[in-house]
Prior knowledge:
The model has no long low-confidence stretch (mean pLDDT 94). 37% of the residues are buried. Helix 4 crosses helix 5. The chain has 260 residues and is of the alpha/beta class. A 7-stranded mixed sheet has the order 3-2-1-4-5-7-6, with helices on both faces. The chain has 9 helices and 7 strands. The chain has a single domain, classed as 3-Layer(aba) Sandwich (Rossmann fold), CATH 3.40.50.150. The structure holds S-adenosylmethionine (SAM). This is Trimethylguanosine synthase. One of its GO terms (cellular component) is nucleus. GO terms for molecular function: RNA cap trimethylguanosine synthase activity. It comes from Daldinia eschscholtzii.
Amino acid sequence: MKRVNKLPLTSDCYHWTxxxxxxxxLQKYWQQRYTIFPYYDEGIYVTQDAWFGVxxxxxxxxxxxxxxxxxxxxxxxxxxxxxxxxANSIALALCTAEDGITPRWDKVIAIELDAATxxxxxxxxxxxxxxxxxxxxxxxxxxxxxxxxxAPHKLEDDLRVDxxxxxxxxxxxxxxxxxxxxxxxxxNTMEPYNLAQLHGAYRTMDHALYLPRTxxxxxxxxxxxxxxxxxxxxxxxxxxxxxxxxxxxxxxxDDTYMET
Length: 260
Ligand SMILES: C[S@@+](CC[C@H](N)C(=O)[O-])C[C@H]1O[C@@H](n2cnc3c(N)ncnc32)[C@H](O)[C@@H]1O
């Protein structure tokens, strides 16, 4: 697995300027484009699939601030495991420490499986002036994290980070817009990756999981040892919760968990 330099935008990367250009099932998302991307007109590019899952910029910025403060300052690298078109990676790269000047994270590693989506993320990050501050990886973040934890010697220098000083942000696909109809969203049946897969991949590091707003809190509570206080935050846009983020501390060898 290697970092990639700037990928070219492809015919799957779009910057629509008129409603007539937009496929009907994406029109409602495009009509919210200034809520999602306040600087859309600067030339933001998005793939068709990415419209469903992109984090609105105000939410991405607040999550970046919260990650910066909730997660210990001893964590200096952050991995965005599902970079998409870059909203969270950009916000993490822009986030500053308490002095308002120094970047909160020494290193931001952004991983994305789809080349066209990653090309949009890199392009969008360049509009915010942070493309060169992010290490971009085209590939499967589960494979990368497995190598990082179990076989770091296989990784190139830039990607071989110390897991003790690393945090993970994960905004996985939620299995399409169908999640909205569930009164309580079952994280064990989430597709293509369920809660156990996600937590299994990140458990040795502090991690933040971006999940449907109705996610089953009991399933999240089972991830942490008895008596642990965790933060689970609802992020709102225009008067409604958009998603929740569960901030989960790294597991320790002597942790004891609730019997299920
Ligand atoms: C919900 S979107 C992420 C949205 C992103 N936070 C943003 O604001 O644009 C999930 C992304 O994860 C990517 N993806 C799916 N499986 C992946 C994997 N195993 N490794 C890396 N990326 C993956 C998908 O291609 C998709 O772009």
